[in-house]
Amino acid sequence: MSPDLVMDTCLLAGSIILKNGGETYRTEETMALIAEAAGMDDVNSSATPTSIILSFRCSGLDHTRMVRTPKRTTNLNKITLVNDVSRRFVGGKINLEQAYRLLRQIDQEKPIYPIWLQHAAAATASGSFAMLAGGTWFDLIPSALAGLTVNLSLEFLEQFVRMKFFTEFSAALLGGLFALLAVTIFPQLHISIIIIGAMLPLFPGIAITNSLRDLLAGDLVAGVSRGVEAMLTAVSVAVATAIILWVG
């Protein structure tokens, strides 16, 4: 098999997993399995939350390449699809060219849920979480609208600002301002409950989970970096919340 095609296929599979919320150990394992199934020798793979390095030996020559993944999101469906392609190739059900074409299709696929549905889900989750946190029925709709404001703000700001934590802080601040406005108009509402619900779309649950899984798998650099990323997100949300409560 062409070593260039093997390298392209492995790196594409790894980058899809990494930039869609997968763990680094899963990224390394998938690339290594594909390369070994393609007949490559001395396969070594290394991944951090922002980069991938793969090396192997073919016909006595060493091949090494690195790619960066600066933008990351969460799309577990794509991770599942990549795992399926990897298993089919390793099992001999498809060849390398077919695997590469399938991975290209997966990488170019749009999210299975439209953006309006994602915003609606964020609003529903925020309102429901406010109720679970002890809010009343009067807090439900303001919390849902505040969560929608956070999600819309985050999507809009990410188009212009590449600093992730600044966009999260700004989105949290705008959601808090909406909550403050709602309490100003309707004093019977509970601002703390509404803010708790509004910040739900920003909670770094997946980042914390992946950090712990990487640490348990022995990937200390990736685990610590993901943990710091989650901590900074939590700090940005906490600071924005503190400002809103201080103003209110």
Automatic annotation (TrEMBL):
Example of a GO biological process term: succinate transport
GO cellular component assignments: plasma membrane
Pfam family, one: ThrE
Entry keyword set: Cell membrane, Membrane, Transmembrane, Transmembrane helix
Source species: Brevibacillus gelatini
Membrane topology classification: Multi-pass membrane protein
Family as reported in the entry's similarity comment: Belongs to the ThrE exporter (TC 2.A.79) family.
Keyword field contains Cell membrane: yes
Official protein name in the record: Threonine/serine exporter
PANTHER family in the cross-refs: SUCCINATE TRANSPORTER SUBUNIT YJJP-RELATED, UPF0442 PROTEIN YJJB-RELATED
Entry's localization field: Cell membrane
Record-annotated membrane-spanning stretches: 165-185, 191-209, 230-247
GO MF, one example: transmembrane transporter activity
Start and end residues of each Threonine/serine exporter-like N-terminal domain: 8-245
